[in-house]
Specification:
Elements: E1 3-7, H1 16-29, E2 34-38, H2 44-54, E3 62-66, H3 70-80, E4 86-90, H4 99-105, E5 108-113, H5 117-137, E6 142-147, H6 158-171, E7 174-175, H7 184-189, H8 203-231
Parallel strand pairs: 1-4, 1-5, 2-3, 2-4, 5-6, 6-7
């Protein structure tokens, strides 16, 4: 059965596209067939894919499709999803009309955040939507908050220190233990050089690869836990 993972946060520029690109690259490296759906009006994922094609750097095992509406998403999943092991959905930052249908199809929703009040609130709103949709349709979608573009300076801020107690203790959703640090390599791959997993193993790429592997391990654990809960 196809596993559907979506990136949702009502704030644009939170790091959704980069996170999904890295995750897709890791699953493809394992030999999985991965589809990526670009539902963001800015089309960053589709533009990256086109640039990869122009530079002959499209990764094996990954296919990218553009679907901008909930209706086209439903049609794609009904017709094509079983061709893939994983379906990763990149959502718009502002258009909330597509969010409910995406959650309804998802096994896991990841809300990337930088330490800003607006992005934290966006992640909380997403979690509350998941609870509502799960309860309405007996769904089992899981949720996790992923801290992105983190630096040593950011770690000294008050809001950064408040993220864990807010997300875990007050809100009650999952906070990824692994953080995505601010790295130039993440900006470089946006220019069409393929996935993170295709880059030359410089010290920075090795660190980024380790981050991604740890994130995917956490994703696998979340999905496995959800499967166990559903079975029981």
């Amino acid at each position: 059965m196809t596993i559907v993972i979506s990136a949702i946060n009502g704030k644009g520029g939170a790091g959704k596209t980069t996170a999904l690109m890295n995750i897709a690259g890791e699953y493809a490296l394992r030999g999985a067939a991965v589809a990526m759906l670009d539902m963001d009006g800015r089309s960053n994922l589709t533009k990256w894919w086109s640039d990869c094609h122009d530079k002959d750097a499209q990764p094996d095992g990954i296919s990218v499709f553009g679907h901008k509406t909930a209706k086209s998403l439903d049609a794609f999943i009904q017709r094509h999803a079983q061709r893939f092991d994983y379906l990763l959905i990149d959502t718009p930052g502002e258009d909330i009309s597509t969010i409910d249908p995406v959650i309804g199809w998802s096994d896991l929703v990841i809300s990337p955040i930088q330490p800003s009040k607006r992005e934290v609130l966006g992640a909380i709103d997403c979690f509350q939507s998941i609870i509502r949709i799960n309860e309405a349709g007996a769904g089992t979608c899981r949720h996790g908050v992923l801290r992105t573009r983190i630096s040593l300076t950011v770690r000294q801020t008050e809001l950064y220190r408040k993220i864990r107690p807010i997300i875990e203790d007050k809100v009650g959703t999952y906070l990824f233990r692994t953080e995505v640090m601010e790295r130039n390599v993440y900006k470089d791959i946006q220019n069409g050089t393929g996935t993170l997993q295709m880059q030359t193993l410089s010290p920075a790429v090795v660190k980024a690869r380790r981050e991604t592997q740890e994130i995917v391990s956490e994703i696998d654990a979340l999905l496995s836990h959800a499967e166990e809960e559903h079975a029981s």
